[in-house]
Amino acid sequence: MPSHRILLIGATGVFGERLARMIVRWPDATLVLAARRLEPLQALAARLDGPASVETAVFDRTAPEGLAALKPWAVVDAAGPFQSSDYRLPLAALAAGAHYVDLADGRDFVAGFAAAVRPPTGLTAMAGASSTPTLSQAALARMTAGWTAIDAVSAAISPGGQAPRGRSAMAAILAWAGRPVRLFEAGRWTTRPGWSGPVRLRFPFMGNRWVVLADVPDLDAMPARQAPKDSAIFRAGVESPVGVWGLWLGVWLVRLGVVRSLTSLTPLLWRLTGLLTLGASDLGGMVVQAAGRDAEGRAVLARWSLWAEPGEGPSTPAAPAAAVLRGLLDGVPGPPTLDAILAQLRFNCIHTRLDVSWPEARGLVPGALGPGYERLPPTVRAMHAGLTPIRAEGTTLARGSAGLAALVRAVLGLPANGRHPAVVEIVPHPYGEAWVRRFGSGRFASRITPCPDDPGAFEETAGPISFRIRLDPDAAGFTWRLDGWRLGPLPLPRRWAPRVRARSFERDGVYRFRVMIAHPWLGVVFAYAGRLTSP
What we know:
Elements: E1 4-9, H1 14-23, E2 29-35, H2 38-47, E3 53-58, E4 74-77, H3 88-95, E5 99-102, H4 107-116, E6 125-126, H5 131-143, E7 149-158, H6 167-176, E8 180-185, E9 188-193, E10 199-203, E11 207-213, H7 218-225, E12 231-236, H8 241-255, H9 266-271, H10 273-276, E13 284-293, E14 299-308, H11 315-329, H12 338-343, E15 350-357, H13 364-369, H14 371-374, H15 378-383, E16 390-399, H16 404-412, E17 418-429, E18 432-439, E19 442-450, E20 457-462, E21 465-473, E22 477-487, E23 490-491, E24 499-507, E25 510-519, E26 523-533
Parallel strand pairs: 1-2, 1-4, 2-3, 4-5, 5-6, 7-12
Antiparallel strand pairs: 7-13, 8-9, 10-11, 11-12, 13-14, 14-15, 16-17, 16-26, 17-18, 18-19, 19-20, 20-21, 21-22, 22-23, 22-24, 24-25, 25-26
């Protein structure tokens, strides 16, 4: 099998090492690790495990004259920062007869790349093969396929506070913080200061996080490729509010003319990183959202989400570059699809989901599931159409732990262990739906309301406690998944939340349900299963 020499520049960086771990799995590649110092390269080479051959080379990306001597088949630049880079490296790669790919997040660098770097026939040159704009664009292409109109698009990234980060990434952020950022908003091009306009944004299975305006290539790519009528915005943030608001205050030093740029603070902030992220987790993620009209002209809201388990987040920006290289090796050049990118993350603990809702649909479940509702079995659709009041009767088998769990059941009106007759009433209201469940002599009432800013989600409230729920549809029905909870307006930590396993489904033409609510401190609070039919 022929081996293709892939020169990975910046291999010892946070993203470079993750990319190296992906490439080393390919038996048809020779991975040449490159950076300015040999010792870290040799240490990285010793840690890598895979069928690819691994070599090391001392190389300075600012002096690319010696690149041809390394005889690369492809050159990947994962070093950065790209905000101050020129095009000598990609031009040197093409002159050496090699493909060129980078992880550039510098907006001006990516915007000028196509005009400055023109690959000859048979070679590929691609800038921005990272989370922005390649991954976000792949997600938007999947989400909006077949739509007749796009009104607004947006994306946001929030790495975990304890996630590994590179000094060049911090320098890149500080370069545009407080400086004018050009963006498409309210149907026109305008400018706003970078790292301004803080908003609380929902990241599925991560909770709400503060994010602010970021100056990235997506601000050009989204208006050019999706052509939204109203807006295209990209936001970024860190998990720690101290970090977000501390940098937001620093932005005013730039806006007031006290300093020209915050880049001079990079060494100081790098040393303070531990303090700014004190108490933060290592859970990071990304959301990409679009609103418009689907193929049938219905109002549609779609969101693609990604969340990474501790230690896995930095693999995400490396995956698009790996997908581009894998495509070149397989004879499929060009921007990678979403599936091609996610294939590079299959060995990582990284999760994704796509939620599509119909904001104008009548009925809570049809609105939350959008096209997913139409694929549900007839009995499940009928039970959750949300157009008229529903009363269903049947039987249920309940069980639960003794002690404090039994006391909680009694307070909530839930039945004792055993078999009971069951009646469920669902009444549509302007705010959503009112549910009353009667099990024997017990009565449990709750209120369910949609989350307009959170596609596919709703909240179920019983007394002072509200649970945020997502629905995962399948051929037989849907699963209810807990995505947060609160006491009144106060969000509660996810680690204190109960464990919920709930499912509504059809079997043998009958609507069935299965629910278990447990808590590490209490045991099984309540578990029940049964069937219902409408009289």
